[in-house]
TrEMBL record:
Keywords: Acetylation, Fatty acid metabolism, Isomerase, Lipid metabolism, Lyase, Multifunctional enzyme, NAD, Oxidoreductase, Peroxisome. GO terms for molecular function: (3S)-3-hydroxyacyl-CoA dehydrogenase (NAD+) activity; 3-hydroxyacyl-CoA dehydratase activity; delta(3)-delta(2)-enoyl-CoA isomerase activity; enzyme binding; long-chain (3S)-3-hydroxyacyl-CoA dehydrogenase (NAD+) activity; NAD+ binding. It comes from the Eukaryota. GO terms for cellular component: peroxisomal matrix; peroxisome. CDD domains: crotonase-like. It holds the Pfam family ECH_1. It comes from Anolis carolinensis (Green anole). This is Peroxisomal bifunctional enzyme. Its EC number is 1.1.1.35, 4.2.1.17, 5.3.3.8. Signal peptide: none annotated. The keyword Cell membrane does not apply. Monomer. It catalyses: (3E)-decenoyl-CoA = (2E)-decenoyl-CoA; (2E)-hexadecenedioyl-CoA + H2O = (3S)-hydroxyhexadecanedioyl-CoA; a 4-saturated-(3S)-3-hydroxyacyl-CoA = a (3E)-enoyl-CoA + H2O; (3S)-hydroxydecanoyl-CoA + NAD(+) = 3-oxodecanoyl-CoA + NADH + H(+). GO terms for biological process: alpha-linolenic acid metabolic process; fatty acid beta-oxidation; fatty acid beta-oxidation using acyl-CoA oxidase; fatty acid derivative biosynthetic process; long-chain fatty acid biosynthetic process; unsaturated fatty acid biosynthetic process.
Length: 719
């Protein structure tokens, strides 16, 4: 019986991406099956246990010359076939892969499969008929949700929505062959999505108007969600063939936009981080990760509690330690609340919450004697961290890895008090630690490659993106951020309002501007760090000029706000006024505006009107300028590392590719010229002086970003 079925999988290889070759082969095989009278039905499946991840993203740069445009015609060829076509989806069907499946008359998947149209996340829209077929299959609201978010839909949900016809425990190919046998001879017309009407809604017009606004708001300046919406909307008002034309037109518009280039760059940059290599050549090839069967977290404050939740998510049992009974109770309640919230979220998403492993809460350092890894997250004070690491080196077994979540402090200094500096490493999470994807993995002078491999593999098992970086004050992310914030403060001193600065950065694509983020994180956090550095507070030598430190411009305004108890959201006042302490509704604060006027008067600053361009350029170029210094110092191995850090740790708008990619798109000569201009106007702000490496790149004719790292290497090898 199977003889009269044809199973097409020859050209669908593992994690297959459609290239013109695959598309042509599929077309050829479908044509062959159509014309062979012995073939009664066709099952389309992938090889090696995967259906398809969609089009090969690396091919998009050459789409003009490629045969990509034929993918929709192959989908259409499949759909028009007189023989039942069944998609047997193993594990995943994304993008063009799902579009092929939508062209089939039936779709079957295994239980652990996921399907989706993630094109929106790489700045595109489904370009092989997905925006026209999916709404016909599952209705407009569900199609808008799936296409504008690009989310991965689990098989059970896809079955409920009607994307899949059947879900089987194990082998969907066998089930697909059975199904093909059952349906042979039945009419195929009703199964062809191109012939179906889009299901009507009583209030379609109003629904679409509201949905457009929601998509636009969520998009934050990203074009692809909005174009995805427009393409789905076209399915409601246009006949199928015209809808397909509209989809193509919008696809080409997105493809030629800088945003899709940036988003595809970000996709590959993130994946490149897994393949870390140190300047001395150490890498996965030379280092094995140690198993982490049990971990400990010290300090259950803002960060510690999220780190505990992240470890538990990776199914690692955790000892959670605090300094006193009261803090332990507070930390325990917070961790348990986090775990409950996570379980509730899973439940709401239709996933079965797993039975959580409950941490072992303790005050006793002795409970750490058998852990494989410790992550310390106590206050940002070097003396305290050193005291704890000394204790750990006495208590923990010799092979245990000792990690610190410090934001700025010197890994080598912390390692120096232990008996195992090669096992000391920075594991820097971002707040909220159970949500944010980024972990900076910081190696000190003596950190072993195996410790790096262990931390990287831990990051992956927690579902996070590890980026290996060198050791310096603030590492990569926070070192660059200091300059961004300095510019925001200086602009406010010079005449801008917090609202103006935030608006410009929000329009650029950040969800919140720097001042609003400062209020959210707590202005006291930076205040404590500046006090620690002796820039403010009791340690400040008498006679220090209020607006300069070590001959460089310094803004005392954030310190003054803290001295007045204005810590931001938590106290109800900061750069903005809030509805209540802990409130989220931010209003411009007339008191603060008055305070700024008084400050300028006291310090003889004549307020000037500052253009939006100046606000944007000074904030972003000064941050990227430090990125060039970081590259030149070898703290980040490549610009992709910096961009991955910024996108995933600091909510930098992904559709601009990250600070280094953005700078490359603006044009290095322009960035250099602007920095020179601002540096001349502000001689007491040395961070505006263009970095020598940026100057070198411009002198070299602004080579493409992917070549920058090799210019650093050649520069350093000549030293
Ligand atoms: C003249 C012009 C005519 C005009 C006509 C215009 C019409 C144009 C018609 C165009 C047709 C469009 C068809 C379609 O709509 C478009 C698409 O399909 S776009 C692609 C959509 N798919 C995706 O976005 C999926 C992206 N991938 C993932 O999300 C994940 O990789 C995964 C599939 C969920 C797997 O995740 P993991 O298991 O974690 O694995 P990794 O992510 O680490 O990936 C492993 C490895 O694979 C590489 N990779 C993954 N997907 C792709 C891909 N789609 N293309 C290329 N490479 C891919 C990834 O980079 C890793 O490799 P490494 O980087 O480590 O070497
Ligand atoms: N808050 C952030 O946004 C953020 C982001 C990344 C990294 N970090 C870093 O993480 C670390 C912790 O920051 P946080 O914001 O969670 O601080 P936090 O003040 O919220 O929490 C610190 C916790 O450590 C506990 N603690 C102090 N001394 C201790 C000891 N001897 N033994 C056990 N517990 C002790 C405190 O009781 C407190 O609960 C710092 O190094 C900080 O720089 C913070």
């Amino acid at each position: 019986m199977v003889d009269c079925f044809q199973t097409l999988h020859t050209h669908f290889n593992c994690l297959i991406y459609f290239s013109p070759v695959v598309t042509q082969a599929l077309e050829r095989d479908v044509n062959q099956a159509n014309s062979d009278p012995t073939v009664k039905a066709v099952v389309i499946c992938g090889a090696n246990g995967k259906f398809s991840a969609g089009a090969d993203i690396r091919n998009f740069a050459n789409i003009g010359q490629s045969k990509f445009s034929s993918l929709e015609s192959v989908v259409s060829l499949i759909e028009k076939s007189d023989k039942p076509m069944v998609a047997a989806i193993e594990d995943l069907a994304f993008g063009g892969g799902l579009e092929i499946a939508l062209g089939c008359h039936y779709r079957i998947a295994n239980m652990k499969a996921r399907v989706g149209l993630p094109e929106v996340t790489i700045g595109l829209l489904p370009g092989a008929g997905g925006t026209q077929r999916l709404p016909r299959l599952i209705g407009v609201p569900a199609a808008i949700d799936i296409i504008t978010t690009g989310r991965h839909v689990p098989a059970t949900e896809a079955l409920k929505l009607g994307i899949l016809d059947e879900v089987v425990e194990e082998n969907p190919i066998e089930a697909a062959i059975n199904l093909a046998q059952r349906v042979t001879g039945q009419p195929l017309g009703p199964r062809r999505l191109c012939l179906k009407e889009v299901p009507k809604l009583p209030n379609m017009e109003a629904f679409l108007d509201e949905a457009r606004l929601k998509v636009k708001k969520r998009a934050n300046g990203q074009l692809s969600p909005q174009m995805c919406f427009e393409a789905v909307r076209a399915s409601v008002y246009l006949p199928f063939a015209e809808g397909i034309q509209k989809e193509k037109q919008l696809f080409m518009y997105l493809l030629s936009s800088g945003q899709s280039k940036a988003l595809q760059y970000a996709f590959f940059a993130q994946r490149a981080m897994e393949k870390w290599v140190l300047p001395n050549g150490a890498s996965w090839g030379t280092a094995d990760p140690q198993p982490v069967k049990k971990a400990a977290v010290i300090g259950l404050g803002t960060m510690g509690r999220g780190i505990v939740a992240s470890l538990l998510k990776a199914k690692i049992p955790v000892v959670a330690l605090e300094q006193d009974k009261k803090q332990l109770e507070v930390g325990k309640a917070a961790v348990m609340a986090l775990l409950e919230r996570e379980a509730l979220k899973m439940h709401q998403n239709g996933q079965k919450p797993k039975k959580p492993i409950v941490p072992h809460f303790t005050l006793d350092f002795g409970a750490l004697k058998d852990v494989d890894l410790v992550i310390e997250a106590v206050f940002e004070e070097i003396a305290l961290k050193k005291e704890i690491f000394h204790k750990l080196s006495v208590i923990c077994k010799p092979e245990a890895l000792l990690g610190t979540n410090t934001s700025y402090l010197d890994i080598d200094e912390i390692a120096s008090v232990t008996d195992r500096p090669h096992k000391v490493i920075g594991i820097h999470f971002f707040s909220p630690a159970h949500i944010m994807k980024l972990v900076e993995i910081i190696y000190g002078q003596q950190t072993s490659p195996s410790a790096i491999a262990t931390a990287m593999s831990l990051a992956k098992s927690m579902g996070k993106i590890g980026v290996v970086v060198g050791n310096c004050f603030g590492f990569v992310g926070n070192r660059m951020l200091t300059h961004y914030y300095d510019q925001a403060y200086f602009l406010i001193e010079d005449g801008s309002t917090p609202e103006e600065v935030d608006k410009v950065l929000q329009e650029f694509g950040f969800k919140m501007g720097p001042l609003r983020v400062g209020d959210l994180a707590g202005l006291d956090v930076g205040w404590r760090i500046r006090k620690g550095k002796g820039q403010t507070g009791d340690a400040l030598p008498p006679g220090t000029p209020p607006r300069h430190r070590d001959g460089m411009r310094y803004s005392p305004i954030p310190d003054m706000l803290c001295e007045m108890g204005r810590y931001g959201e938590k106290t109800g006042k900061g750069w903005y006024l809030y509805d209540k302490p802990g409130g989220k509704i931010a209003q411009p604060d007339p008191w603060l505006h008055g305070f700024l006027s008084d400050f300028r008067r006291t310090h003889n600053i004549t307020a000037r009107t500052i253009s939006q361009d100046e606000i944007l350029e000074r904030c972003l170029y000064s941050l990227a300028n430090e990125g060039f210094r970081i590259l030149s110092d070898g703290i980040a191995s490549c610009p992709e590392a910096i961009d991955t850090i910024y996108i995933n740790g600091y909510a930098w708008p992904r559709h601009t590719g990250g600070p280094m990619f953005y700078t490359s798109q603006v044009g290095l000569p322009k960035v250099l010229a602007k920095l020179q201009e601002y540096a001349e106007a502000n001689p007491d702000i040395p961070s505006l002086q263009p970095s020598p490496f940026l100057q070198k790149l411009v002198a070299l004719g602004s080579p493409p970003l992917k070549e920058w790292a090799s210019h650093v290497r050649s520069q350093n090898s000549k030293l």
